[in-house]
Amino acid sequence: MSGVVRSLSRCLLPAEASPDPGSGKDRDRRWEKENQQEAAKREREAKRRSREIDAMLARERRAVRRLVKILLLGAGESGKSTFLKQMRIINGHEFDQKALLDFRDTIYDNILKGMRVLVDARDKLGISWQRCENEKQGMLVMSWEGRVGTTGVEPGEFQLYVMALSALWADTGIQEAYCRRSEFQLIQGPSE
After folding, report:
1. Where, by residue number, does GTP bind (predicted)?
2. How far apart are CA 151 and CA 190, in angstroms?
3. Residue 79 labeled ligand binder
4. How do residues 107-146 score in pLDDT, each as one tens digit?
5. How far is residue 42's CA from residue 51's CA, in Å, rounded to a whole number?
């Protein structure tokens, strides 16, 4: 009788509630198969990324082999930076807008430093001013102090000195000092 009840209970119970002795094993096999498929998929992706990285490293190695490095040695103001800029121009590489703005600031800095040297040299060489008013302009330029650690003068700051620089350059005393520049050191190019 108990066997009949068991048979009837299997028939009357819903399918998911009926005890199936093999269902746990099937579920474990399916889960294991899915995990194996996922692991194989991750491994294929890892191999693909590894090939991409290897290809990128090979391209970089070839580029580095073609790269030429040079070390330029020389005293300050000997033309190292000028040489590199000339090489860039000769090889047709344009300067970007940022580089051009940096050059402008450096040029402003060199103009002010150069005029300071000329005003100081004029005084040391005993050359008199053509116009007495230019002594004040010279004092204004001599009062300029370049900021430590910077490589250039901002356009707004430079504008404060434009009239003084123009007046000084027109003065025959400054022109005479410039003609005698072999007697003192006057910078000739960009600061390095």
Report:
1. 77-82
2. 10
3. yes
4. 888 889 999 999 999 999 999 999 889 899 999 999 887 6
5. 14
Residue given tokens 């009788």 in the structure block: 1
pLDDT in tens, 71-80: 888 887 788 8
Q: Is 128 annotated as a binding residue?
A: no
> Exposure of 107 by Cβ count < 10 A (0-12 exposed, 13-18 middle, 19+ buried)?
middle
Confidence of residue 192 (pLDDT cuts 50, 70, 90): very low
Contacts of 187 (CB under 8 A, 6+ apart): 77, 110, 113, 114, 117
Is residue 69 annotated as involved in ligand binding?
no
Which DSSP string corresponds to 121-151? HHHHTTPPPSSTTHHHHHHHHHH--PPTT--
